[in-house]
Amino acid sequence: xxxxxxxxxxxxxxxxxxxxxxxxxxxxxxxxxxxxxxxxxxxxxxxxxxxxxxxxxxxxxxxxxxxxxxxxxxxxxxxxxxxxxxxxxxxxxxxxxxxxxxxxxxxxxxxxxxxxx
Length: 117
Known about the structure:
Shape: elongated
CATH topology: STM4215-like
Low-confidence stretches: none
Helix content: 10-25%
CATH architecture: 2-Layer Sandwich
Strand order of the largest sheet: 1-2-3-5-4
Number of domains: 1
Largest sheet: 5 strands, mixed
Oligomer: single chain
Strand content: over 45%
Structural class: alpha+beta
Number of strands: 5
CATH class: Alpha Beta
Distance between the termini: 7 Å
Order of helices and strands: HEEEHEE
């Protein structure tokens, strides 16, 4: 599954920052939530779109620093043998006032070979 492959890749690159598939009940200082939002196939190449929320409880600046790390990792995902394309769809800052944390929202699109995962 592309979800678990991207999650594992981010966990290895971010080391001390948890990468989760859903918002946690008790959130850590920093974390990333990865959600598959769309998937399909074009000319026998699989495609997936992910929403990523990058959180930090201290400041929007700290969230921005983590967001940049996440972006670089995802752009570099093209070095994985199964990823053929990695593009940023959108990026925006915000505050999750309901949970009192700062966050950035990213949308990334991937084309990949499922057989390689």
